[in-house]
Structures are given as C-alpha cells and as structure tokens.
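Q: How would the structure tokens look for this protein?
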Amino acid sequence: MKFGLRLRGGLLATLIMFGAPVVAPVGAAFMSSSALAQTVQSISVEGNRRVEVETIRSYFKPGPGGRLDQGAIDDGLKALIETGLFQDVRINRGPGGQIIVSVVENPVIGRLAFEGNKKIKDEQLTAEVQSKARGTFSRAMVQSDTLRIAEIYRRSGRYDVRVTPEIIEQPNNRVDLIFTIEEGAKTGVKSIEFVGNNAFSSYRLRDVIKTRESNLLSFLASGDIYDPDRVEADRDLIRRFYLKHGFADVQVVAALTEYDPEKKGFNVTFKIEEGAQYRVGAVDFRSSIPNFDPSSMRAYSRVNVGSLYNVESVEKSVEEMQIEASRRGYAFAVVRPGGDRNFEAHTVSVVFNIDEGPRTYIERINLRGNTRTRDYVIRREFDISEGDAYNRALVDRAERRLKNLDYFKSVKITTEPGSSSDRVILNVDMEEKSTGDFSISGGYSTTDGALAEVSVSERNLLGRGLFAKASVTYGQYARGYSLSFVEPYLLDYRVALGLDLYQRQQLSNSYISYGTKTLGFSPRLGFSLREDLALQLRYSIYQQEITLPSYLANCNNVVGSSAFNPSPAFAASQVPPIDLSSTNGLGCYSDGEASLPVRKELANGKTLTSALGYTLTYNTLDNNKNPTDGLLIDFRQDFAGVGGDVSYLKTVADGKYYAPLVSDIVGIVRLQGGILTKVGSDLRMLDHFQMGPNLVRGFAPNGIGPRDLNPFGTQDALGGTKYWGASLELQMPFWFLPKEVGLKGAVYADAGGLYDYQGPTSWTTTNEVNAPGCIPSTINPSSAGTCTGLVFDDSKVVRTSVGVGLIWQSPFGPLRFDYAVPLTKGKYDRVQEFRFGGGTTF
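A: Here is the predicted structure in token form.
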C-alpha cells in the first residue's frame, strides 16, 4: 500500500509546536515496524537539483544497528524543512518498503534590489536583511526582512514607511527579489507633557531630556524625531535629575506615547511621582575591616550635613573612598552607602559602610566593537588591568571616561564569571561613530564685523586618540590660520600635550587706528588634578608688529630740511599762526595722526615675546554649554621675559557663579580682575589690558580707560595695567514660547574700571628730539599731540551700566543681542549701546 505525507511550513510549525503525532491510515505500511526498519541507503531522493543526494540522506539518523525507525524518519523530515532550502518536502513509501524523499527546492536569489529608498543607502539595508544575492530564497525570510526594513526606518523617525517585497521569477529556478519602499515623512514629537511635577516646571524638565518638540527649525536637528529608546533614556534622565535635587523617593512611573493621526506625530507624556525633598541629616562612616580607620574617609566625602540629598554626590563619594582604600592597600574594600530616612523631618542620615569585599581578580578584559580605535587607546582609560583586584568603582570610572572620549555611540562594560570562582571577565562593548569634522562657520559681531572660518578636525586621528585641527579665518577685520595638535597621554601618563601654531592679522577699524600681525607658537601641558580641578602649563612665543596707514604716521616724514611738526597749541601761538591743514609738511595733523605709543611701536618694528604661564581652573558647572548651577573659576598668570624683547607679569582672575532661583530664572554673578606688573624693561602699549563690553556692557570695544587726548589725532585707547569688573545677571525663559525655540531673556547690571597706563609717553632716546618728524630742540613745545610728549586721560571713575539681552541657542549657533545704557562713564569713554554677536557651523 502506498502512503503519502506532505508537510509545508505553516502546518509543520503547528505540528511541531503542539507535538501533534502524524497518524497514517490503519493498515498502511508505516504501521509495520518490520517495514520501517530500513537503512539510510534504502532512501531515494527525487526533485533535487542543487542539493546533493547524500546531503539530504544525512538528515536521517539511523538508530542502533544502523536501521531507521519511524522517529528517525520524522526527525529527518523536520530537519530538512528547517534548513529553509526547500519549498516542499514529501516522504512516500515505494515498492518493498523503500523510502522516497521528494523535494521541491527553494529558488536562488539572482538579484537583490531596493527601490524608493532615498534616506537610507542600499549598502546599509543589504547589511541588515537576511536575504542575500546568490542565497536561497525563503518566503518566511522575506517577510522577516520586510519587517526589519520597516523597523530601520522607524528608528530613524519614519513611522509611515511601507515596504512591499516583489518576487520576479527567472529561468533555472532563480528569482529577483525587490523591496519597494515608500519612506514617508519623518514622524516627529508634536508635544511633550509632564504629569505630577510640582517642584520643577515642565519648561525646566524639557531641558533635562533629549527628546524635543517639532518646530519650524526642526529640519536642522534630529531631537524631535520620535525614538522609543531615547524616550526610555529620558525617563532615567528625569529620575537622575530629581535624585540630584533631593527627591529620594521619586519615580518616573511611565512614559506614555500616543500617535496622533491628525497631527501625524507622537504625543509623549511623562508621569512623575516626586515624593518629598530630603536634606542630609547626618553623615557617618563605619568599617568592618580591622585596623582601618573609617573617619579617615571623611575628607573624601562630598556629602555635607544640611545640604540637599544628592545621589550623584553620594556616588562620587563612594568612588573616591573606594579608590583611596585601594591605594592604601585594601584592594578588596567595598564602600556601600546606606540611608535612614526620617519621613517627618524629611532628612536622610547617610552612612558609608566600608567592608571587605570578595577576593575577586580580573582574569581578562575583552574589547569588542572597536574596529578603528586601537586597543591601547581604550585600555589606558582603565586604572586596572588583567590580574588586578576587581574594583567596581574603577570599572565605573573607566566606563565614564570612555564615554567622555566621544569616540563611541555607546559604551557598556559587563562582567561574566571567569575560569574559577575568584576570577571575573570584563567585556567592553562599544559602537564607534564618526570622529572627523569639516565645518564652514560664519558670524557677525559689532566688534569684528563679518567673519568666516573653514576648519577640518579629527578627534581620533589614525585611531590613536590624537586630536588635530586646521582652520583658516577670513573676515572684515580679522584674518589668519591656526594648526592644533593634542596628545592626551604624553609618554603613557595622564598628561595632555598640546601644540598650537597660529598667525593672526587684526585690521584697523572704527575702534582702533592700527592693525597688528602676530605669528606664534605655543606648547602646553594639561593635568587633571581632580574631577573639578585642572591645571594647564604653557609656553608662548610670538612675534608681533604694528601696521599703520601712511597718513597716520606722516608726522614722522621730512619735507625739506626745516620741516617740523608743531602741536596745535604751538601753531596757534605763532604770528602769523601756522596752518595745520596745509600740505607743506608743517600740517601733518590735518588728516589725523596715530598716538605716540602706536607710532613708537611702529618705529620699533617686529617685537618678540617669550612667556611662561599657567591656568588653574575650578569647574562645578552642571552643564558647560548651558549652565544653570555651579561655579567656574579661572586663575591665570603669564611671565614674559624668558628671552624675547619684553618682560612683564600678567595676573588675571575670572569667576562665575550660577544659581537657579525661582520659576526657571537663573542668577549669574561674575567677578573679574587683572594686574599687569612691570618686570625689568618698559611696558608696551600692546601688553596693556584693553577693555570695553567684555568688562562693562554699553561701551565700545577699547572704549574704557586711558586714552590719548590729542584732538587732531586718532585718540587711540591706551589700555591700563589694572582692571576690575562685577556683573549681576538674571536669565529667564520666555514661558509663552516653546522650549525648543531656544530663546531666553536677560537683565543685568555691570560695573568696572580700567586704570594706570604705564606705557611710553615720550621719545626720550638719544637725539630723538631732533629726529625726522619731531620738533627741533630749539622749539621743543612738549604738549599734547607733539612727537615728544603724550597727554592722556587717566580718570579712575567707576563705569556702570544696566541693560537687557536676548539669548538665542539657535541651530545656527549661539546668538546674543544686548542693549545697555551706561550710567556713569569717563569723559572720553566711547559708548556703544547696542551689541550683537554670533556664529554657526554648517
């Protein structure tokens, strides 16, 4: 009796899933155990074209004695179908109980193509799908690939995508597989709402998350594109933000997303349960390790009694303590923080428990995913290596350092058991990203005019962790180029070596009568003393010269042997008076004249400055680009005189304190000051501090401080050797505008002063009084405007101003508009009430 059994993909899957037995009719040959006892060689194969007979037979595994039973035949049938090589598989019984396996092979994919895809390249889609050219065609695989392509588009924010597979049959059992894609428009986030937030406004919380609402300028960014992974990450960012501000019980219960077909976008709602805000009630230290004094860890605690309970401060304290314990020889010490909450007083008593942890060693560190970055670049971010004691704090620090490198899209360090119970393996999984940048920048300011810059940079040069940048600047009043190189690990130490070569040209403009050319080179070393404290040492050598239009220096020219350059007062006292507007060589002031220090610097030619300096920076800002809380202090000193033509000591301090106030208003207090000290040789005018709106807004560049009083000259600003400044500013959002617009307003008050010019005031070198262009010694009226004398304003009045500003964190870069009105000023100060500055990279 001949019996046929045919199983296809869907039916077979059902049978396998539920374990349904295949039952042949009563009396069929399959029911005879003696008839089933066949060998593999008794299997014949029909319908195969590419797959060898022996390959098909190999799926039928004989039992004891080399015989096939019913179970072996069923297993072989299932295995053949699961290969995906066949559209259909049948097992029939032939004469004498022979087993006949009839197969219909799946076609071969001759060509794989994608049509309609503009936003995602063919190469990326080909790498993602399972179907491959010259591979076996499978309808189940095609269906899976269709879903995978759709998912790729959804990850890029296109939820309206439609993917249609098309199968075109070709001769010789071959097919062409074409995926037709309708990409659709990007699906944005139309609204972001917060429910349950009482302590912080929705406006403030939108600053915390990465997801943004769609707006008119969204095409310049991608934060408004709906990404479920990013929304989930935002939940953790919100939670961390609350924990940082004392809300120890906070829970971000859910992030609800709903697609709005009318708006064709998503509405995202974060549901928050804030709980109470806690302060630190007490801080204690306990140790179970013999001879370990727990109180010695108090110096490494960043948690203070009375302050807001801050989880980040607790975590940093744990890290510092655990690392310090390891340095003292307690390699396996573990610091575990504990907290006892007082729900009535809303305080948390923090206890740092220092215990002996398990004696676990690092067996191996596996690096995975770094196709370009060299292994040693990654390993040097670890303070531990193979064979060292396992220290979770050091592992967390390494993970944070790797993320801060900005070489990778993601970094994750996980552990797995090693070859024994006291061994652990670290797996470092990374996904690299592009680290090269090419930018064309443009900007405009009332100080520098229009400006454009082209730059090329690479943060991970040759995969060795080196930084290199080359830029060219060309503008209305400023031009030049610069080359920078940074080796972050000099001689395998955590010391950054930087090299800068630059050439700058500042042209004369409405604020200064002269131009300058500077060519310089500066090596520097950077040290991270602590997470919030950094030190930079530098050496600078540069050559500088002044340039002047000829008409501003023509009092140094001789017209005839008797020509001299009288002051306006001297000319008026003569009988008859001298006409200063004449062109006979006696009236060189008729077209203006640069100040004496400028002309003297021009006469000196090129000047070489060689200086050593350092900068100490203390930074606790919560965000370096858009800070709302924290302190930033810079203290700098430069000593010129290590060779070169000039010598001085310049000291500068600048501090900014940011504090969140009420209703998303941020208060900013800034204090700054500087002193230029003469060391040995005389000071040049170019070495003096020049101040304007960088000290007190409402004044023009170089608009404050000592100034040449020659009414017929250019009245150049001379600068000063001492300055101080204080500023109070309030920045506030425009609550009636969407957060994503990036507009903020500011009101401020400034005060400051620039004093004590100590540069050249006369030409006093040998025979200079009788030099060409100067008044002969027989006349020598040394008064304002003459070649031999300088009279300048040196009033020590305090300059003050109040003003308003508009700050725009635009897609074109940060822009700021200021309108300030001086309240008090010097008699000869220059005012500039409106000021604008900004730029972009595109």
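The chain has a mean pLDDT of 82.

DSSP finds 13 helices and 34 strands in the chain.

Upvote if useful.
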